[in-house]
Design brief:
Bound molecules: fe (ii) ion
Number of domains: 1
Strand order of the largest sheet: 7-6-5-4-3-2-1-8-9
Structural class: alpha/beta
CATH superfamily: Metal-dependent hydrolases
Distance between the termini: 62 Å
Oligomer: single chain
Length: 291
């Protein structure tokens, strides 16, 4: 049995050095407790993913039982999240140097994966947020893009807290949100395609929230590494971790912290997207004037 968490955010961008240090120590301690074999560090493209990876790698140290995978959760022009995983840190470095957030479209995903030798994951396609492929682009595009991905995220733990919250009586009337949360926790089989692997991601933004990790009964062949193994499009199943044993008070504290984080990420995204739009409009205008 081998375990992978294919979606994890160190979330140490734009915080003071002391907060960063404390958060990284806690990440390392929780990751050690959970004991996942492979962990993909997939910081958002607009939150210095390379720094995030290096900070978390250093916090885990050279003797960690968990292998850290360099990755990024990149955002397309349409506002859709796609995860890219790389074999080496230098591949992530190369990607970050050449690809800006909001500068590509979801149909570029396959070519980008080829160009940068990356494994692709379509995360939380029906997420209650505004970055899920199916939710933003509709089912037709979802099928077109996802069939070319290595993985679709069939379980995302970040919705675990929301799931509990949405069960409370004052949220019960929001059937659509409940459905989106349920489908983010467990993607219905009709949206899983033949030949596309099943990814499990905790989508952690704060230490101690790695509620589920992915497990599969597979083994590496001689001469293979984790990258070759993942290319085999494995069907991971979610497995509970100790982090699930959380008091109700702690759950509410986590929900508040996560909501603040979502709000700040939305603000950064809106700002970066607007800047990119203005720059593109100005260059289109200049091109028209010159013609
Ligand atoms: Fe994420």
């Amino acid at each position: 049995m081998i375990t992978f968490d294919l979606h994890y955010h160190p979330n140490v961008c734009r915080v003071s050095p002391s907060v960063r240090q404390r958060r990284l120590l806690k990440h390392a301690s929780h990751i050690r407790t959970v004991g996942v074999d492979y962990l993909a560090c997939t910081e958002h493209a607009y939150k210095n993913p390379l720094d995030g990876y290096r900070f978390l790698r250093d916090a885990l140290g050279p003797y960690s039982n968990t292998t850290l995978i360099p990755g990024v959760e990149c955002i397309s022009r349409e506002g859709v999240d796609i995860i890219f995983l790389f074999r080496r840190e230098s591949d992530l470095e190369d990607y970050v140097r050449h690809v800006r957030p909001f500068s590509w479209t979801v149909t570029d995903m396959e070519k980008m994966a080829r160009d940068f030798n990356a494994i692709t994951v379509v995360p939380h396609p029906f997420s209650p947020g505004k970055t899920g492929l199916a939710k933003v682009m509709g089912l037709e595009t979802y099928y077109q893009v996802t069939e070319k991905a290595h993985y679709v995220e069939v379980h995302n733990s970040a919705s675990h807290l929301m799931k509990r919250f949405a069960r409370k009586k004052f949220a019960k009337q929001f059937d659509t949100i409940q459905k989106q949360i349920a489908w983010t926790m467990d993607l219905p089989h009709e949206y899983r395609m033949d030949g596309v692997g099943w990814a499990v991601g905790s989508d952690v933004h704060f230490p101690g929230q790695q509620f589920y990790i992915g497990a599969a009964d597979v083994a590496m062949q001689p001469g293979e590494d984790w990258f070759d193994l993942l290319k085999g499009r494995i069907k991971f199943e979610p497995v509970e971790t100790e982090a699930l044993d959380m008091s109700l008070g702690m759950e509410y504290r986590c929900l508040i912290k996560n909501s603040r984080c979502v709000l700040s990420e939305s603000t950064i995204k809106a700002h970066k997207r607007a800047k990119r739009w203005i720059r593109r409009s100005l260059s289109d205008f200049a091109a028209k004037q010159a013609a």
